[in-house]
Amino acid sequence: MPAPSMTVIVPAKDAGEFVGTALETLTRQFDDDHALKLVAIDDGSSDETGEVMRRYAERFAHAEVIRNESPLGLATARNQGLAHIEGDTFCFLDGDDWMQPRRLPVLHRTLHQLGCDFVRTDHVTVKAAERRLVRAPYTHRGVVADTRAAILPADDRSMVDYPFAWAGLLHRRMLDRGLAGFSDGLFTAEDRPWIWRLHLHAESFAVVDAPHLLYRRGLSNSLSKTLDHRQLHFSRALGEVLDLVEADREADRIMPKAVFGVLALSSHHLVRARRMQPAVRRELRAGIRDLLARLPRDQTRAAMDRIGGPRRRVLARVLREADHA
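Above: the chain's sequence. Below: its structure in token form.
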């Protein structure tokens, strides 16, 4: 049997309503059934997600379905998939999203033509009947660039602010070099240290045009909607970002970007925390307070000048707590 040229990793939990659509779109990518390997991870689902995965696996020449008896989280599930990669390229697809036909052949061909470590793409968000194109925040298209060149500027969106693991395709050497994995156990914000690691330690990338990936927004079971203990993982994830930057040879140059990102995301979670249970809210604030205590104060003050409204007010209170802790 011919070996696959790429692997698609599809983790999902309780996505029975949508995962069939995601997997159906994978059947519409290549003319050659052997070109793609499916690795599907049922992360402790209590619905028919695993059954749908196993049924679709029969339609692929190369497929594996992994079952976790209890949920291990998106980061760990993706890592499980990485251990089963075949071929020289790979990508991720969440179980409630889907792809337009021929996306993967375009990305596979383009990655090899450009010879870079990974490619990134725009995507389309879908919320009910509304669709919106979200562009990757990089000016040049189809041009190979240094990954570090896409980290800054500190005061505007850059590629480290576009962390979506599913928005592109990676060459296998990213796996071989230890750059493709996620931090085990993270249930949210797992893609933040992941994208920083890629841009700090890979060598080249490109933003390219391709048929779109469609990303569902506003689902009731989405982690972005949850207000439970899983949101506490956000501070651990951003702490790992700070670890990466502090250890980097260009830490002085790129730290302002990390500081602004930590402040912006912390303020977002602090505003949302008002709707959390008191115990979870207290723990979230404590994690953010410890995170903010690590930030260089001169860079923090400069970044705070660019944050306004209620987010600035809630940040200022926690910063005062961090200063007096």
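The longest strand covers residues 36-43.
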